[in-house]
Amino acid sequence: MIRLLALIALSAFLITPLMGAAPPPIPPLSERVTFLSADGATMLVGYIFRPQGPHAARMPAVVMMHGRAGVYSSAADGDYSAMTLSRRHQEWGHLWAQQGYLAILVDGFGPRGYPQGFLRFSYFSRPETLNEVTVRPLDAYGALAWLRKRNDVIPDRIALQGWSNGGSAALATMASVSAPGVPSLTPVTGFRGALVFYPACGLKGQFDGGLVPYAPVRVFQGSADEEISPRHCGELIDRSRARGGDIQITTYPGATHDFDDPGKDRRDVPANAAATKDAMPRAIAFFASVLNAQAVPK
């Protein structure tokens, strides 16, 4: 009987990866931290990616805002920790650390009771506490305020990155005139710039006439995006540029939503692989320019 139980346990261990267990994290493991959202009430969770080896005592930083699926792997199975962060977020976090930046991935869903995120077509059933135009920008500014107090971060050289719903939040963040504790947002008092990947550009109807970000914004979009409207985003950015906004969009023919996701389903689409190959060095060069840092070739 003992032998049988041992065999069953071993079989379960071997089969688990095949059943969709979360893949092992990319070393080194990110550091879990907590900090207060600028909403003044929500204690957020963040995951820190820091440069390895010799680096400057104080460095630029990047705030990363997740999309509707949250920060964790879809196979996390209740273990919501640094061990189960999604592969995409880990890869980007380590990329910024390799550039000499301290990066923080903000979990805005878990502390509000939704660590597993949301499936497609759930937009109109999500709670108002996760509103990407009125609430999630406060999370970004909470991360900004927390980073500015660290003695290893240059307080006026912090940038923002967002994907999908987090990309929409990043657009709203950069269009803000003020934030709690910051009466006037500029590239010095706020974010130096933002990278926005495949956002939904409806933005609750609050920017139909366009938006004017207080710092440069670069948007990356696939023409075959099946979750949001590339046309709508293009029109929003055209209206924003007409108003004088420093915002540009790069559209990749044939690329889908989540085109930079390293999972097999997305990467097997040739247009997605090509879009990722082009977007990543553009992203590196953009942050190097706005953060006054030297890009590290990849």
Task: Describe, in plain words, how this protein is organized in 3D.
The chain has helices at residues 2-15, 87-98, 136-148, 165-174, 230-242, 264-267, 270-290, and strands spanning 31-36, 43-49, 59-65, 102-107, 153-163, 194-197, 217-222, 247-252. With 298 residues, it is of the alpha/beta class. It has a single domain (23-290), classed as Rossmann fold (3-Layer(aba) Sandwich), CATH 3.40.50. Strands 1-2-4-3-5-6-7-8 form an eight-stranded mixed beta sheet, sandwiched between helices. Strand 1 (31-36) and strand 2 form a beta hairpin. It is globular and about 45 Å long. Mean pLDDT is 92; it is low at 1-19.
Layout of strands and helices, then pairs:
Blueprint: H1 2-15, E1 31-36, E2 43-49, E3 59-65, H2 87-98, E4 102-107, H3 136-148, E5 153-163, H4 165-174, E6 194-197, E7 217-222, H5 230-242, E8 247-252, H6 264-267, H7 270-290
Parallel strand pairs: 3-4, 3-5, 5-6, 6-7, 7-8
Antiparallel strand pairs: 1-2, 2-4
Helix pairs in contact: 3-4
